[in-house]
Amino acid sequence: MENSGPTIDIESPCQACGACCSYSQNWPRFTTEDDAELDLIPENFVNERLSGMRCDGDRCSALSGKVGVATSCTIYAVRPEVCRTCMPGDAECAMARRRHGLASVVVPALSRDP
Ligand code: SF4
Ligand code: SF4
Fold first, then answer.
1. Measuring from atom 8 of ligand 2, which residue has the nearest CA?
2. 19 CA closest ligand 1 atom index
3. Which residue is closest in CA terms to ligand 1's atom 4?
4. Nearest bound ligand to the CA of residue 102
5. Residue 11 near residue 113 (C-beta atoms within 8 A)
6. pTM for the full model?
7. Beta strands of the chain (E only): which ranges?
8. What would the pLDDT profile of 58-97 be if each residue is shown by its tens digit?
């Protein structure tokens, strides 16, 4: 990992974070979802081009709460694939958290030396 700053070491940091959901309007885009899966996402959360989640600035419209304090995805069960692949402690997570001034997450399985 490229991070050298302070770290936190907890198992489920996402509910006190939300940084990757508030990183870029290009982030919560649709990729491998089929039409049936996309139909499950309420249309008021989908952008005009139907290419991803609607964002307010960099923040996904489906994100509830305050980034870095307490957040949740209001469409968690039907969220896009890209949202499922961002894992606490990976490079995208670290980048998003850094943007919001949050310490990097160290997940035990990812932090072990080889
Ligand atoms: S994956 Fe990382 S950046 Fe995204 S909510 Fe979880 S801890 Fe935050
Ligand atoms: S759909 Fe949910 S998990 Fe995905 S960016 Fe939006 S708030 Fe985050």
1. 21
2. 3
3. 20
4. 1
5. no
6. 0.86
7. 7-8, 55-56, 59-60, 63-66, 70-73, 104-105
8. 999 999 999 999 999 999 999 999 999 989 999 999 999 9
> Which two structure tokens, joined as six digits, stand for 105?
């997450």
Map out the domains of the chain as residue ranges: 10-104
Q: Where are the alpha helices (DSSP H) in 45-90?
A: 81-85
Around ligand 1, the residues with Cβ closer than 6 Å are 13-14, 17-20, 86, 88, 93, 96-97, 105
Minimum-distance ligand 1 atom for the alpha carbon of 13: 7
Least confident of 1-10, 11-20, 92-101: 1-10
Within its chain, how far is the Cα of 104 from the centroid?
A: 14
Give residue 1's pLDDT band: very low, low, confident or very high (50, 70, 90).
Answer: very low
Q: Structure tokens of 48?
A: 């005009």
User: Which ligand 2 atom is the nearest neighbour of the CA of 27?
Assistant: 5
